[in-house]
Amino acid sequence: MLNKINQKLNQLNRASQNVNNTSRNVQNMQRNIGSIGNRNNNNRNNRNNQAAAQPEADPSWKCACGMVNTSKFCGECGGKPIMCADCNIIVETKFCPECGTAVGQND
Fold first, then answer.
1. Quick check: 70 and 76 in contact, CB under 8 A?
2. Which secondary-structure segment (H or E) carries 61?
3. pTM score above 0.70
């Protein structure tokens, strides 16, 4: 009889240890989830800070002759950049990527 009582006590102790281990595991998982959330927020904040620190736009443009320039006129042929009259941006294609207006070569 005493043997059976000891066996039951051992079973209860093991069950209690399992519950404690499970509780610790849950707490660890909650901490990990919290730290992941903090890392995601930090990454989001870092991306926002990096975006704010980057220059607004690349000042270069590609001339019809194929030369990439940063000045007001092409260093190869002397041409001007093609501008969209509606958006006032430099356009390197036949149509403005902002508004879709067909653009022509500036004189």
1. no
2. strand 61-62
3. no
